[in-house]
Automatic annotation (TrEMBL):
Keywords, alphabetical: Transcription, Transcription regulation
Signal peptide: none
Identification of the protein by name: Scarecrow-like protein 3
Record bears the keyword Zinc: no
Coiled-coil segments: none
Length: 490
């Protein structure tokens, strides 16, 4: 099985030094050595990818063509996670090079238009089935909801996870409510999703489970996506009733509300940023033998000085609902940087880790290889394309780190709720059940980070409206004492 520590060694780069704007690294034009083994060929992938990104930023068709040919040659040696990722990145870079051509950007087809909806939905579900991190998120979120609703008689759960929604999460929660001391509450579940067939199947499955458990249950469906909801009428849209306790779960969706028109390519500042992009990417391509990994590349904060209007409107509407608790799971990555070179570095590191983790899952379950291939192409591949190809309002995969989400939530009138010891412990048990040595989690500021090797992949945090402005149906939430914990690898 491919070890993530080896991939970290293969991506050997360090951040550029100041004033590197005139030097052209010789390694970019170094021919591939034909007598090398697969490992040596793979070691060249990182520098060639950075060189290709620099050529794309320069707008050089000739140099980009050479780099793309090198990438194709290197990825043909052997099949592996970094090779498959490199092909997706190469495709994205080629698209970015062509985007300035008049009419090309508008001709790009959204995956929802060329993937059959049933196949796309299957791929979405397969990601949740394959990834130990998403399953861990479901377990942790469910435990936090159970604790927040400990004494409630009528519970309304609002699932805003849209394409990430999975009936398995709520089946488990219904079973946990069934075993609650004092009996289960009346449960109402509202799910927002853009696939009517998926919602119908989910309604049927959960209703049967609730009947079997003898839990009063009502399923409400809302057709749409998070970014298309009417935030001025959210109470009616979600069918909120007076006196019910509200729990909100939002997994891997809120980053889509960070969209802003930050396309500055026509401005003088945009030209300076282009020069910085080229310089940094060329420097990274040249440093094949640097002892420092790209994973130590300094993190560039999000350019947002203020919370974007769309996200602010959403959080204001959520705060007005007075939820007992809101759970947020997000990709813990800085894919919202304004500079393309920063996004490229972050995307290469982040998705190399994510692809490697899925490769480890398949090594343990070879029968799921076809499902994994579809997830890589249809879900993760389209995310990467959006991050690397699109700008401005067309770039909606704007993942941010936990610290940035804390800033947005605090500015919008939410207090952080520490995850309880039990919620973290149960999440850790679920993650360790995957038996993948690279999987581990750690606690940061009473939130949970899910990791592969040294790379943070997902964050899970809990929130509630500021006291004194809005509150849930109880005066104070019951949260178990929280200690700082770092779970060791299993």
């Amino acid at each position: 099985m491919w070890q993530w520590q080896q991939i970290e060694k293969l991506l050997k780069l360090r951040p550029p030094e100041p004033n590197y704007y005139l030097n052209i690294p010789r390694v970019m034009y170094m021919p591939l050595m034909q007598d090398q083994g697969p490992g040596d060929h793979l070691a060249q992938l990182g520098p060639v990818l950075y060189a290709c990104a620099a050529h794309v930023t320069e707008g050089s068709f000739e140099k980009t063509d050479i780099s793309l040919s090198q990438i194709k040659s290197l990825t043909s040696i052997v099949d592996g996670p970094l090779q498959r990722l490199s092909l997706i990145i190469a495709d994205s870079l080629a698209r970015r090079l062509l985007c300035p051509i008049q009419g090309f950007a508008g001709a790009l087809i959204h995956p929802s238009d060329y993937f059959e909806q049933s196949v796309l939905q299957t791929a979405r579900c397969n990601l949740a089935n394959l990834s130990p991190y998403i399953s861990t998120g479901f377990v942790t979120i469910n435990r936090a909801i159970l604790e927040a609703m400990e004494d409630e008689k009528v519970v309304h759960i609002i699932d805003l996870s849209c394409s990430t929604s999975h009936p398995r999460q709520w089946i488990k929660l219904l079973r946990d409510f069934h075993g609650r001391q004092g009996g289960p509450p009346e449960v109402r579940l509202t799910v927002v999703h853009d696939n009517n067939g998926f919602l119908a199947d989910m309604r049927s499955l959960l209703s049967k489970e609730a009947d079997m458990l003898k839990i009063p249950f009502q399923f409400n469906s809302v057709i749409g996506r998070l970014e298309t909801l009417d935030f001025n009428n959210l109470r009616n849209t979600l069918n909120i009733k007076y006196g019910e306790a509200i729990a909100i779960s939002c997994s891997l969706q809120m980053h889509r509300l960070l969209v802003v028109d930050d396309n500055m390519s026509c401005s003088g500042i945009g030209q300076l940023q282009k020069m910085a992009n080229i310089a940094q990417l060329k420097k990274m391509a040249s440093l094949v033998y640097s002892p420092t990994s790209t994973l130590n590349y300094p993190q560039t904060p999000s350019p947002q000085c203020q919370t974007p209007k769309l996200l602010a409107s959403f959080l204001n509407a959520i705060r007005a609902l007075k939820p007992n608790i809101m759970l947020v799971m997000e990709q813990d990555a800085n894919h919202n940087a304004l500079l393309f070179c920063d996004r490229f570095v972050e995307a290469l590191n982040y998705y190399a880790a994510l692809f490697d983790s899925l490769h480890a899952v398949i090594a343990a379950n070879p029968r799921m290889a076809d499902e994994c291939a579809r997830v890589e192409r249809m879900i993760l591949g389209e995310e990467i394309k959006n991050i690397l190809v699109c700008e401005g309002v067309h770039r909606h995969e704007r993942h941010e780190r936990l610290s940035q989400w804390a800033m947005h939530m605090n500015r919008s009138g939410f207090d952080h709720v520490p995850l309880s010891f039990r919620a973290i412990w149960e999440g850790n048990q679920k993650l360790m059940s995957s038996r993948l040595n690279g999987c581990h989690n750690k606690v940061e500021n009473d939130c949970l980070l899910l990791c592969w090797g040294s790379t943070h992949l997902y964050s899970i945090s809990a929130w509630r409206p500021h006291k004194g402005t809005t509150s849930g149906s109880r005066e104070q939430m019951i949260v178990q004492p929280q200690s700082q914990i770092i779970w060791a690898d299993n």
